[in-house]
Amino acid sequence: MSLQSVRDYLACHAPDISIIELDTSTATVALAAEAHGVVPGRIAKTLAFRLADDRNVLLVARGDARIDNKKFKAVFGKGRMLPAEDVQQLTGHPVGGVCPFGLATALPVYLDVSLRDFDEVLPAAGDVHTAVRITPARLAALVGGQWVDCCQAQTAEA
Question: Which of 4, 11, 27, 126 is deepest in the core (most CB within 10 A)?
Fold first, then answer.
């Protein structure tokens, strides 16, 4: 159902974007980067957090980025990553296939500025063997995302 919800979302909002389906797992950043022949930074990982005020949010960042706790707290206040079962329930996507498209629950989406290091990124598409190719600007526009700076600085690799 998760992959289908992404198909439906893209068909409605971005019919020109094709879902890439592979025979191999892309459930981790390393696996996805290898499968797509890109550096890990180009994989757009989607992380789910519960904030101190009980709001749930998604943060999309480059695959090799690490959360900078000080920056995160400055933007969101206190928060913690959600456990896998909560992530799947809220998003409708399995861990490894979580993306900001076709969500089971409407969630605010934030995009880390680290994504702007690349002209094109690959977020998952609702399953552990799927992705889409998209520019960071289009990704933000498509999901109504807001840009934030929550990750440690990375070296841009193309």
Answer: 126
